[in-house]
Task: inverse folding
């Protein structure tokens, strides 16, 4: 037995597979099989109790004419409007920290702090903070800014931007740290030369920082874009449950809602499949564009 | 009833003598029980006592009692149910909110229920297929949790109102008087859209009798028809007239609105007879000023009281220990269970085999009396298909915010009713 | 810096300090708010949600710990997350080694396939994953959640390890190969010790993510005695009547472990976050 293992380990493919085996086994059972099952369920009508009933493409036809689906997709796309702020905000902060400001280490540490908080904690916190009679509005009123007091999370006009700003806040530290690492690799002489030429802060940002860190900006943009489709669920869940009305109803929340409150796991899985295709499309497109730039 | 009393006396005697273990009892094994109240302060205490007394009576049985989070209760149940790993016994909401959405996983109880039980407990239509009390029964009603308007008598008097409104028009007139006297008429929290649902549930019977209620949810009457629209319009009118706290859309009914009414900041609140938003939370601070009135009449002259039959108790049809599971349900919903729940947590009995003690507050005795004397029927959001209810809650928020008209919302609602996903 | 007075520094840096100061305040306030609020009474909070508690109370902290059973949940979290992190260390380092150092036809394809799993929304697989765990008889067991968590974080962890091994100088491994050591020996005695920085980073990040995970913990652990901290917190929040100070007490308790990790494993954290982002 041992001899055979050794011989197997001698060939590269077999050895690699032995090294890969535990990981692949777990991934197969707990990641691939569920995706395959989700695909199967998307072609059924299933209330969770009795056996799923095969319905073919009926769920997908229903999705095409489902106003709630289109509302959710629209919301997902509206979030992308905040992409510039989301992508460039951390860059600007990183540039400021990188500029040699006294206390840089401390600020870096503090701005990263929220990144360790769980979405459940963040959601619960902002839910309390942003209530009509909550701390933020009380503060605004006490300093004479009562005109700015809002029903942040329950007014359809403010709720989506508020929620997106919370996402941005929660990921700000991560983005800043990533950009700082990229900035550390930019040749400092470039800046010195630009300064000698009399370039101001904004020009240096545009002409040196952005081009020199472009790969990182791309990475962060893709990361953020995929996140808006895949990781916002816990925030929606703890902050608004998609409300008021459908104002913050997003696709991954729809999957959950259609399954556990709508009572049809088949239809929910179909929405999930559409979401999966969408995310894969976004990733694939981004990947393709990056490859092309590289070539 | 007589038999039950005898049984309790016997049980109590054995308990007192510490000889419960010698009681001949063929029940054994473990039962798993789920509920969402187990970790709450008041209910939890009562349920723990029920468990303890049940175990003393049946020493062969063990109970695994699982406290589930209320917000994820049905999610957990559905996932457990998908692999038939759910509990033996569980607490559920009545009607389509709970029991009647999952009949294929629940044990029909018609053969278990004794005639005495049947006669002493009210509200069987809430746990019966097609809301027909003579049909298949899937659960046992747990307590009185009717949906009512509580009001503050002192604030009413201050506005010159001497008695509670009986019709919608009187309600409207009283609101105007309250507002004129500088008193906020209603407490409401609608962040999760449940607050307005409570108001709609109470206003609904004013325009729908029992038969029409069933016709509406079965599709014979339309959600975009005039009658249903009228109910919705009533609430919208109350909101537009400024009878609610301007911050209601970011407040919660269960906490913020309760605080507002309990502290005398507002004159009325849509609440529940037992459970949360109940008299338990108001009696301590309001005392004799606490009053209650029921669904106001509109096109229906004598509306039923919308009731939820409390949390009801059900058994899964794949339970491996049905005898013990049923014994537990029988004890929980029986007179001794009702007594514990009332004494410990102030939960109102739906089982007439248990009589409230003489020293119970007059307010409580009055409310229980009203329920027994009055027609009661399941509240509408537990008659409707649940996906339609959730759509209704969301669309109504959109209507309040002005991003949809009521007509558009109700058309979309009817469309979902006709074309389920 | 020594020669510059504070006044001079202020003149030059006031704008940067203002921006960074506001951001710092926003980062710290959740912790401050929770700390203050957990010691307030419900009535005091309703009256003044911002200020310090006039008469601090331990009632809610006590309730969160006792009837809220936060300590029991914490114990479960540590067992489950600890075991999953250990499995991830072993499985991901082996897989990363295979994909980076050993390489073979198709290894790139496997790598891309594993990466693609990062884009699958949790909501999509939630229901079938639960079914799978159920079919294996692992619902309501620590082991079921441990394996689920391992699978959840494997793609990222493999990615991290593969990138790290890619950056190791080839010569060291080739030299050991020449000495006739078996592949397993090279991996264990040379590659693993060299990859300590990557391993510690991976452990830190996975600990934080899994410690904060709610969805699968909620589905798989149905028995109160087996539940993890985020579920306990969600239970607290999900009860309609939970007063804000009680919620704050729960939040406070759940913040302590992650804060400890944050300050102890500073370097690992920022290293992990930036891995793969720059090149």
Result:
């Amino acid at each position: 037995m041992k001899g055979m293992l050794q011989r197997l380990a001698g060939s590269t493919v077999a050895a690699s597979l032995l090294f890969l085996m535990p990981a692949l086994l777990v991934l197969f059972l707990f990641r691939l099989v569920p995706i395959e099952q989700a695909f199967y369920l998307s072609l059924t009508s299933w209330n969770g109790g009795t056996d799923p009933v095969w319905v073919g493409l009926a769920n997908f036809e229903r999705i095409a004419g489902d106003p709630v689906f289109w509302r959710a997709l629209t919301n997902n796309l509206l979030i992308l409007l905040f992409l510039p702020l989301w992508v460039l905000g951390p860059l600007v902060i990183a540039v400021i920290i990188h500029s040699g400001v006294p206390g840089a280490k401390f600020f870096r540490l503090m701005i990263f702090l929220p990144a360790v908080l769980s979405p459940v904690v963040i959601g619960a916190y902002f839910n309390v903070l942003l209530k009509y009679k909550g701390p933020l509005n009380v503060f605004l009123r006490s300093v004479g800014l009562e005109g700015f007091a809002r029903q942040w999370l329950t007014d359809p006009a403010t709720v989506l931007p508020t929620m997106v700003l919370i996402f941005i806040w929660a990921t700000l530290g991560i983005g800043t740290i990533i950009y700082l690492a990229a900035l550390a690799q930019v040749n400092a002489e470039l800046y010195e030369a630009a300064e000698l030429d009399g370039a101001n802060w904004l020009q240096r940002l545009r002409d040196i920082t952005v081009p020199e860190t472009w790969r990182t900006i791309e990475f962060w943009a893709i990361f953020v874009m995929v996140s808006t489709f895949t990781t916002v669920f816990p925030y929606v869940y703890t902050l608004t449950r998609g409300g008021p009305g459908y104002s913050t109803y997003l696709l991954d929340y729809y999957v959950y809602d259609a399954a556990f409150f709508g009572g049809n796991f088949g239809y929910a899985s179909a929405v999930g499949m559409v979401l999966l295709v969408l995310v894969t499309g976004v990733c694939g497109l981004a990947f393709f564009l990056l490859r092309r730039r590289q070539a | 009833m007589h038999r039950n009393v005898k049984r309790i006396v016997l049980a109590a005697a054995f308990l007192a003598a510490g000889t419960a273990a010698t009681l001949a009892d063929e029940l054994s094994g473990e039962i798993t029980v789920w509920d969402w109240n187990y970790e709450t302060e008041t209910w939890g205490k009562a349920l723990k006592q029920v468990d303890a007394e049940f175990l003393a009576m049946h020493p062969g049985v063990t109970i695994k009692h699982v406290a589930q989070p209320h917000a994820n209760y049905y999610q957990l149940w559905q996932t457990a149910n998908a692999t038939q790993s759910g509990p033996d016994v569980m607490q559920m909401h009545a009607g389509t909110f709970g029991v009647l959405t999952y009949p294929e996983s629940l044990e029909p109880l018609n053969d278990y229920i004794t005639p005495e039980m049947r006669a002493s407990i009210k509200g069987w239509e809430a746990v019966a297929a097609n809301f027909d009390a003579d049909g298949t029964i899937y659960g046992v009603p747990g307590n009185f949790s009717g949906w009512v308007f509580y009001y503050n008598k002192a604030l009413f008097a201050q506005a010159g109102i001497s008695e509670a409104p009986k019709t919608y028009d009187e309600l409207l007139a009283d609101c105007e008087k309250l507002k004129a006297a500088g008193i906020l008429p209603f407490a409401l929290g609608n962040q999760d859209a449940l607050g307005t649902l409570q108001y709609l549930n109470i206003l609904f019977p004013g325009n729908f009798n029992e038969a029409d209620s069933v016709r509406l949810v079965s599709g014979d009457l339309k959600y975009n028809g005039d009658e249903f629209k009228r109910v919705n319009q009533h609430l919208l009118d109350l909101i537009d007239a400024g009878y609610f706290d301007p911050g209601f859309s970011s407040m919660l009914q269960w906490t913020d609105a309760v605080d507002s009414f309990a502290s005398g900041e507002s004159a009325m609140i849509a609440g529940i007879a037992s459970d949360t938003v109940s008299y338990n939370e108001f009696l301590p601070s309001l005392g004799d000023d606490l009053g209650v009135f029921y669904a106001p009449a509109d096109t229906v002259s004598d509306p039923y009281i919308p009731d939820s039959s409390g949390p009801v108790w059900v058994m899964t049809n794949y339970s491996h220990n049905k005898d013990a599971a049923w014994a537990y349900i029988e004890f929980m919903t029986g007179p001794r269970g009702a007594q514990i729940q009332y004494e410990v947590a102030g939960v109102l009995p739906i089982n007439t085999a248990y009589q409230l003690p003489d020293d119970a507050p007059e307010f409580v005795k009055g409310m229980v009396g009203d329920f027994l004397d009055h027609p009661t029927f399941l509240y509408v959001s537990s008659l409707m298909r649940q996906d339609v209810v959730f759509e209704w809650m969301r669309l109504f928020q959109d209507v309040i915010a002005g991003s949809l008209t009521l007509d558009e919302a109700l058309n979309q609602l009817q469309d979902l009713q006709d074309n389920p996903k | 810096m020594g020669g510059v007075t504070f006044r001079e520094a202020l003149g030059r840096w006031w704008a940067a300090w203002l921006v960074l100061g506001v951001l710092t305040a926003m980062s710290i306030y959740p912790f401050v708010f929770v700390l203050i609020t957990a010691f307030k009474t419900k009535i005091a909070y309703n009256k003044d949600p911002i200020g310090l508690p006039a008469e601090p109370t331990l009632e809610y902290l006590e309730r969160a710990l006792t009837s809220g059973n936060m300590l029991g949940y914490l114990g479960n979290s540590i067992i489950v997350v600890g075991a999953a992190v250990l499995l991830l260390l072993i499985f991901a380092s082996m897989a990363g080694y295979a994909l980076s150092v050993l390489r073979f036809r198709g290894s790139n394809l496997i790598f891309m396939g594993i990466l693609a799993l990062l884009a699958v929304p949790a909501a999509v697989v939630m229901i079938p994953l639960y079914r799978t765990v159920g079919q294996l008889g692992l619902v309501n067991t620590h082991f079921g959640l441990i394996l689920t968590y391992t699978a959840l974080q494997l793609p990222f962890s493999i990615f991290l390890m593969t990138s790290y091994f890619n950056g190791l100088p080839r010569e060291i491994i080739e030299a050991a190969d020449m000495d006739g050591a078996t592949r397993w020996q090279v991996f264990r005695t040379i590659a693993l010790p060299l990859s300590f920085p990557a391993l510690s980073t991976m452990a830190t990040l996975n600990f934080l993510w899994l410690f904060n995970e709610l969805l699968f913990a909620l589905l798989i652990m149905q028995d109160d005695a087996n539940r993890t901290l985020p579920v306990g917190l969600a239970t607290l929040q999900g009860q309609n009547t939970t007063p804000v100070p009680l919620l704050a007490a729960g939040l406070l308790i759940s913040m302590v472990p992650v804060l400890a990790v944050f300050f102890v494993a500073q370097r690992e954290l920022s290293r992990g976050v930036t891995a793969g982002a720059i090149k």
About this structure: Chain A has a mean pLDDT of 87. Chain A touches chain C through 92 residues (CB under 8 Å). The CA atoms of residues 190 and 208 of chain A lie 7 Å apart.
